[in-house]
Amino acid sequence: MRVGFIGLGVQGKHLAINEARAGFDLMAYDVRPEPLAELRGAGAKTAVSAHQVGEFAEVVQVCVLDDAQVEDVVAGQQGVLAASAAGALIVVHSTIRPATIEKLAAQAARQGVDLIDVPVSGSERGAREKTMSFMVGGDDAAFAKVEPLLQASGQKIVRTGPVGSGIRAKIAHQLVVCVNMLSAYEGVIMAEKSGLDPNVLMKVVGDGAAQSRMADSIFRHAIAASSNRVFHKDLRLCLEYAKELGIPAPGAALALEYLDRIVPPPEAKP
């Protein structure tokens, strides 16, 4: 199977490397030369455009930042759809609006191409260590085609339902992650300011009802400014989607407000 991978960021690069090292015939593309060199070192082919990837691959995975980038890569003039043959499959790993997934899936279907949403969870560490989780929104045939690729980076693969359901699950997941992360961070700050030994707090939280993966993560490292762009984007998606559904999301709103205070959003750089 000829595979394409577009978007070699902190997670995408390792997902693509895992697939190349697993023996898949893979062609990768990114706007930056550094990760492309790493992919060549792992045995992958590299492309000069998303269009070239579309010409080559039977399955194209897209792991870029936001809606605008996904739409450009998939449906732009030099995008994947402009080059894909009927029967191809496009797999979107990016966390974007459900409406964008549904729009692109309909556009792809008119060309005889399947498009499914397979958002990911696990961060750079999970991608590197092959412990990623995947949420798959798509039919049986698409799942059968993509499953071997996902297994190169992790065995936690959840079928969420039809196209669009994977991203809805991811948005709900991110709401839980971000609210949990910010509460854990707030607890750590309180303990530090009160003079409590961080190792004591780690033991208390780890052995108590407050234990969680996010709390454990906060003890390992502070919230990085480099990842803050993603947290801001995902929380805003949570709030936007909650508004579409007509439901309140005060936890997400508070988490975003608090995150803005801890590490200002990218556009607020001095």
Describe the structure.
The strands form 2 sheets. Strands 3-2-1-4-5-6 form a 6-stranded parallel beta sheet, with helices on both faces. Strands 7-8-9 form a 3-stranded mixed beta sheet. With 270 residues, it is an alpha/beta fold. It has helices at residues 12-21, 33-41, 50-56, 67-75, 98-109, 123-129, 140-150, 165-193, 198-207, 213-220, 225-245, 250-262; strands at 2-6, 25-29, 45-46, 59-62, 89-92, 114-117, 120-121, 133-137, 156-161. It is globular and about 60 Å long. The protein contains 12 helices and 9 strands.
Query: Order of strands across the widest beta sheet?
Result: 3-2-1-4-5-6
Structural class: alpha/beta
Q: Which series of helices and strands comes N to C? A: EHEHEHEHEHEEHEHEHHHHH
Strand content: 5-15%
Secondary structure: helix percent = 40-55%
Radius of gyration, whole Å = 19 Å
Main sheet summary? 6 strands, parallel
Helix count equals 12
Overall number of strands: 9
Instruction: Kindly report the average pLDDT value.
Output: 91
The dominant shape is globular
End-to-end Cα distance, whole Å, is 48 Å
Low-confidence stretches: none
